[in-house]
Amino acid sequence: MTTLGAFVLGTPDPPALADFYRALLGWQEVERTPEWVRLRAPERERPGLSFQLETDHTPPVWPQGPGTQQMQAHLDVEVDDLDVGTERACALGATLESYQPQEDVRVLRDPHGHPFCLFLPGA
Fold this sequence. Notes:
Layout: E1 6-11, H1 14-25, E2 28-32, E3 36-40, E4 48-53, E5 75-78, H2 82-91, E6 95-96, E7 105-109, E8 115-119
Parallel strand pairs: 1-4, 5-8
Antiparallel strand pairs: 2-3, 3-4, 6-7, 7-8
C-alpha cells in the first residue's frame, strides 16, 4: 500500500506559517519544533500539511514568466463563499493576487509567499 503522508512547504519560519494554515483550515497541530511543524485535519491522520525550515526560501512569481522562480505546486482550499473566504484569509495574513485567471477561483499568497487558491465546491 502507498499513501500520501503530507504536503510540505518550505519556509524561513515554520511555526509562523503553520499558525496561519492552522487558523485558515481549522486543523490540529501534532508536532512543533523551530525547524518543523506538522498539521492534520481533525477527522483524519493523513495526508497532513507540514512546514520545514528553508532559510533561503524564495517565493515563486505569479503569474509565471520565463526566467523567474516558477511555482512548483500550490494548495487548493475549498470554501463556501469566495468573498468571505478571501476576506478571512486576508485577515489572517494572506494577500490577494492582482492576476486572477478564473471567476470561480481566487489566487492568494500566504504570509511567506506561497500561492494558494480558494475555490467553490464543484469548481
